[in-house]
Design a protein that fits this description.
This protein is an all-beta fold. The protein is built from no helices and 29 strands. It has strands spanning 3-6, 12-20, 24-27, 30-39, 44-46, 50-53, 58-61, 66-70, 73-76, 81-83, 88-92, 96-99, 104-107, 112-115, 123-126, 129-142, 145-147, 150-160, 164-166, 169-172, 177-187, 191-194, 198-208, 214-229, 232-248, 252-255, 260-263, 270-271, 275-276. The radius of gyration is 20 Å and the shape is elongated.
Length: 279
């Protein structure tokens, strides 16, 4: 127990192995863990600095402890990071978990990243490779989520509840889901969602912010919220519009020549513009 501190931004600490099972890690400088960083207990990471697992290291978040991340940044540059079990991370005050460009992070359980500590919104920032493989469970992002590289959901549901920016690629295996379930999710040029799984809009809004932005989906289900199409939204497979969802904006939602548009259910369908023609 107790507190480990790097008091100033110019201070640093280097560990081969670091196990966080209680107490607090106050990271005003830079803390580097070159081997295993095991965050398995009730520990608070605070301060304005960074705790970094570089290439060759391993980050694990697991267990039933109450983890809290406030103010600072936790970075993964290793290729074997895991977030397991029902591990819960409380967060706020502008804190960031960042998967770096060379990093690989796998969610194997029903974890939660939750904005419940006040202050500026925290962020999960995926710049590398993120995999969800949790056997049908739901991993919940109750904080903004950005993806500028690759997300692969091989099983289960990645449930995004607080908005973010999507400029990378999402691969969704059959039977798996990426669910946009609150907040404003902005799609910029280059985003695509491939695979036989389904992207779902359950609440909040999906937005192409400008006429030059676009998004491409294989399968898209609209059950609530708003699809704001300033640019072009393309659906190559099935567009299932079955709930109370608004399509607004001056852009186009387009179903490809081999695609299917289903409009079913008892919800209220509010349409600005959509077309069903070859992409």
């Amino acid at each position: 127990m107790g507190t480990f501190v790097t008091p100033a931004a110019t201070d640093s600490a280097l560990f081969a192995t670091l196990v966080l099972s209680g107490g607090a890690l106050s990271q005003n400088g830079i803390i580097r863990v070159t081997g295993l960083l095991d965050w398995s207990g009730t520990t608070t990471l605070n301060g304005t600095g960074t705790t970094r697992v570089p290439a060759g290291g391993t980050l694990t978040i697991s267990g039933a402890g109450t983890r809290t991340l406030v103010s600072g940044t936790l970075e993964n540059g290793g290729t074997t990071a895991t977030w397991a079990d029902a591990a819960f991370v409380n967060t706020g005050l502008g804190a960031v978990i960042r998967n770096l460009a060379a990093g690989s992070f796998t969610f194997t359980g029903s974890g939660t990243f939750s904005y419940n500590q006040g202050g500026l919104a925290p962020l999960f920032d995926n710049q590398g490779t993120l995999t969800v493989n949790n056997g049908g469970a739901t991993f919940t992002m109750n904080a903004p989520f950005n993806n500028s590289n690759t997300v692969t959901v091989t099983s289960g549901d990645l449930n995004l509840q607080s908005g973010g920016t999507q400029s990378g690629t999402t691969n969704i295996t059959a039977g798996a889901f990426v669910s946009f379930n609150g907040g404003t999710h902005s799609f910029v040029a280059g985003h695509s969602a491939a695979g036989a799984g389904v992207t779902r809009l359950l609440a909040g809004s999906l937005t192409t912010a400008s006429p030059t932005d676009s998004a491409r989906f294989q399968n898209l289900t609209l059950t609530a919220g708003s699809l704001v199409q300033a640019g072009v939204i393309r659906v190559n497979g099935t567009l299932d519009w079955s709930g109370t969802t608004n399509l607004t904006g001056g852009g186009v939602t387009r179903v490809g020549s081999a695609g299917i548009l289903n409009m079913t259910g008892t919800g209220t369908l509010s349409l600005n513009t959509t077309t069903n023609r070859p992409i």
